[in-house]
Specification:
The complex is a heterodimer.
Chain A: E1 3-10, E2 13-20, E3 27-32, E4 37-43, E5 51-57, E6 61-67, E7 111-113, E8 119-121, E9 126-132, E10 140-145, E11 148-152, E12 160-161, E13 182-188, E14 196-201, E15 204-208, E16 216-217, E17 238-243, E18 251-255, E19 259-262, E20 270-271, E21 280-286, E22 294-299, E23 314-317, E24 325-327, E25 345-347, E26 355-358, E27 364-367, E28 375-378, E29 384-392
Antiparallel strand pairs in A: 1-2, 1-29, 2-3, 4-5, 5-6, 7-8, 9-10, 10-11, 11-12, 13-14, 14-15, 15-16, 17-18, 18-19, 19-20, 21-22, 22-23, 23-24, 25-26, 26-27, 27-28
Chain B: E1 2-5, H1 8-14, E2 19-22, H2 30-40, E3 60-64, E4 67-68, H3 80-83, E5 89-93
Parallel strand pairs in B: 1-5
Antiparallel strand pairs in B: 1-2, 3-4, 3-5
Classes of the chains: A mainly beta, B alpha+beta.
């Protein structure tokens, strides 16, 4: 029988939750890296035992952790496990994220817009999202704050910026959202290894068709009342984007406000908020086998980051948007005021599609029937930042 | 032998407990001690000082012999008691909640 492994990043450590294909009885491992902010933990599609984790702290900065045994043991890439390394010149640093300032490709990448509209230099703060390659366990992408995309091809031992993203000219117009100016979404196109989608708060969505050398904004159709030009090419606070791998040209987006859809790989977007009670939110995801079935968790507003009416409801559309149904079976429907952050929903690929999400209140919920009913796997973790799931043989 | 006391999270990263002892060639300064610490424990690079500028991370402070050494020159000699190993260099996280 298949198994699932759920990787949970929280404000105070990481947790690994495992169960068989029924997804009823769970084993909980953790906290790993107790006391650290774990923005993201994700496994390699090419080697499910290879996991990457982003560990960070306001005191000690960024750490990258890697596991080669499915989360049982971890180490910083490039340093031996367990014992201190022998004296000598330090090896390449797995936590060294240095922006490209070279004459040939990085010279023009100087400042972005600060909260008050003034220009501000790029300063590395943390890794928000790690996206392992679909085919090579040693290749992994990192989306960072201040917004940029890095890539490692040596299992996380060293990182190099794909500076073409910041270099296409609109960088000075990017600005931080409430959580910082972060590159939080990375989607690799399974049908085209040269195509990558990313999203930045608050700059918008971008796409490369040449493996990361050059990028273009893909925000036509987005409309944001909170920026000077609501239809601007960049500046939109895109919260998350999701894709079903069987239809890589179809993208679904949860923007700051508005749920959006593109049928042409991001070239054009149209709103599909329909009958949602509010179209502000962070997460969005797509059913593993039904590419027109999508999930969101509406949040009351940009100034009240909790679910509306004290009810935790996942909304599902089986029509690719516009027509939404509330999924409430097993979820609290009174006095609930949690948030669900942008990377805190995941979908498994078992025949009976599983849906998972984690809350700011420390609950991780699972539905083993595509959202019809829900159960908490754990109720009292630290605030959940990210949830990923792996289906294992 | 120079003695260094690390904050708890960095002890975990470096797989050490209690104090770290280091052989450091003179002159004994913050820079030479941190250079030796990072050479011995490369996993600490970037966690105490910025990778590129080598400036102290804002939420960390350095103390020794009841003195705050956080804002002095990294090339100033450390107190004799630290250089002789009588007293440790303390690396401390700022009290900023947590």
């Amino acid at each position: 029988m298949s198994k699932v492994r759920v990787l949970v990043g929280t404000r105070k450590g990481a947790f690994v939750l495992t169960a068989d294909g029924k997804r009823e009885k769970w084993e909980v491992s953790g906290p790993h890296f107790a006391g650290w902010e774990m923005y993201h933990v994700k496994g390699s599609p090419a080697d499910p035992n290879r996991l990457y984790a982003s560990q960070s702290s306001g005191w000690f900065g960024q750490i990258i952790q890697r596991s080669d045994d499915g989360g049982k043991t971890w180490r910083q890439p490039g340093t031996p496990p367990g014992e201190p390394p022998a004296p000598g010149p330090p090896k390449a640093a797995s936590n060294k994220f240095v922006y490209d300032t070279s004459d040939e490709s990085g010279k023009a990448l100087t400042t972005h817009q600060f909260y008050d509209g003034t220009q501000h230099p790029w300063e590395f703060k943390r890794v928000w999202h790690l996206e392992p390659s679909l085919s090579d366990p040693d290749t992994v992408y990192a989306g960072v704050e201040d917004a940029a995309l890095f890539r490692s091809t040596d299992g996380g031992e060293s990182w190099k910026e794909l500076s073409g993203l910041r270099g296409h000219g609109t960088g000075p117009m990017w600005q931080p959202g409430a959580g910082g100016m972060c590159l939080h979404t990375i989607i690799l196109d399974p049908s085209d290894p040269q195509r990558i989608f990313i999203a930045i708060s608050a700059a918008g969505a971008f796409r490369t068709d040449d493996g990361g050398k050059s990028w273009k904004p893909i925000n036509r159709g987005l409309r944001s009342q909170y920026i000077p030009d609501p239809n601007a090419e960049v500046g939109h606070c895109v919260h998350h984007i999701a894709m079903n791998p069987s239809r890589p040209g179809v993208l679904f987006m949860q923007k700051h406000w508005d749920v959006m859809r593109s049928d042409d790989a991001g070239d054009n977007w149209k709103e599909i908020s329909g009958n949602l009670p509010t179209d502000f939110g962070f997460v969005i995801d797509v059913h593993a086998h039904e590419p027109e079935t999508i999930y969101v968790v509406p949040i009351k507003s940009d100034s009240e980051h909790f679910v509306p009416d004290g009810k935790l409801r996942v909304f599902r559309s089986r029509t690719g948007g516009n027509e939404w149904e509330a999924l409430t079976n097993g979820l609290p429907q009174t006095n609930c005021y949690v948030n669900v952050l942008r990377d805190a929903m995941a979908i498994d690929s078992l025949d009976e599609c599983g849906v998972y999400f984690g809350t700011s209140g420390g609950q991780v919920y699972v539905s083993a029937d595509a959202g019809d009913s829900w159960n908490p796997i754990v109720r009292d973790l630290p605030a959940v930042l990210s949830v990923e799931v792996q289906a294992l043989p | 032998m120079i003695r260094v006391v690390l904050p708890q999270h960095l002890r975990t990263l470096a797989h050490v407990g209690g104090e770290v002892t280091l052989e450091v060639e003179a002159p004994i300064t913050l820079r030479s001690v941190l250079d030796a610490l990072e050479a011995r424990y490369p996993m600490l690079r970037g966690t105490i000082r910025d990778h590129v500028t080598l400036e102290r991370r804002p939420f960390l402070r350095f103390f020794a012999c009841e003195e705050d050494l956080s804002h002095g020159s990294p090339d100033a000699p450390l107190p004799e008691a630290v250089a002789s190993g009588k007293e440790p260099l303390l690396i401390i996280g700022a009290i900023a909640g947590g």
